[in-house]
Amino acid sequence: MTKKKSIQSKGGAARAEKLTAEQRAEIASRAGKAGWATPKAIHEGEISLGSNGSIPCAVLEDGTRVLTQSGFMRALGRARQAKGRDYYDGDVNMPAFLTANNLKPFIGNDLGKTSSQIEFRQMKRGGPKAFGYPAELLPKVCEVFLKAREEGVLHASQMHIAKQAEILVRGLAQVGIVALVDEATGFQEVRAKTALAEILEKFIAVELQAWTRAFPLEFYEQIFRLKKWPFDPLSVKRPSVIGHYTNNFIYKRLAPGVLDELRKKEPKIDGRRKNKLYKWLSGEVGHPKLLAHIEGVLALMKTSDTWDEFMDKLDVVYPVIEVTELGLEVKKTPKPKK
Question: Are 94 and 15 in contact (CB under 8 A)?
Fold first, then answer.
């Protein structure tokens, strides 16, 4: 009697049939290399999610930051694998929880390229194998479920994932996830000091740039709300402490050494700077990263009810990383005075 194949098995076979000869050869090559070239974790730790548990993570010897597969699934509310016919023929490396038909419109090509599962060896004796996903994948997956929920296309069985994604995305901004992994594993303590020069070269422009957009009005409105100050959108007058907040929330946490370098580029003359600091940021990396960072900080502000709550979230998601004798490490900064 011939054993009946499961629906999942048929689905896998169907996707395999769509592969070209080159794609099959590439997969076979990767599988063959996995036996002798599996990367090893050089730092391991856990990202604390407070009452929502924690996610085991690691930094591999090639510098890749990963979240373990089990931790990734727990973070999404123990998302189940896709079942039955309700899946689309996506990349064979796409995680099963992203292959539901109703999610397809919200999955971009960039997500598909970073969603492949990674096999690595753990640090413990004997180096047992483990599986994980690139750390940057988590906030992107969260966005997929949140966008699908906004469009009203999620199934009842997927709503718990969207709810968990909403919790995660507020605390794991895409710019901050790598820093979180580095802090949890201790990797930032052994980075070479030459990394600082490379960072500044990417972030800082040689000449002044003609940027006209940086800080939206909402950035200041949220500060006023959290501080319980009256806000007048038509007034350009703001407390002098706003400048200190901007340096602390944005420039200090954008990348190591960036604030100091910007101050060198645009020193104060008679107590004032002629140009805004952000006008010295490069167009390739610095300015785009600044805009993304501001959006991430804004998200933390919007989901905070108090000043202290916001500051606690900020220190977790965007820790200040500074240069020390050991390399780059997280600095615990005191909260701004009320």
Answer: no
Nearest Cα residue to 216 out of 291, 276, 273 = 291
pLDDT digit string, tens, across residues 265-308:
999 998 889 999 999 999 888 988 999 999 999 999 999 999 99
Backbone phi and psi for residue 81, each to the nearest 5 degrees, phi listed first: -70, 150
Residue linked to tokens 């919200």: 106
- Nearest CA-CA partner of 155 in 110, 97, 201, 207: 97
Neighbouring CB atoms inside 10 A of 26's CB total: 12
Extents of the domains making up the chain = 37-189, 191-331
Q: Is the pLDDT of residue 197 over 70?
A: no
Nearest to 139 by CA among 164, 119, 102, 105: 164
**Element at 166 (helix H, strand E):** helix 159-171
Q: What share of the chain is helix, strand, coil (3-state, %, to 5)?
A: 50, 15, 35
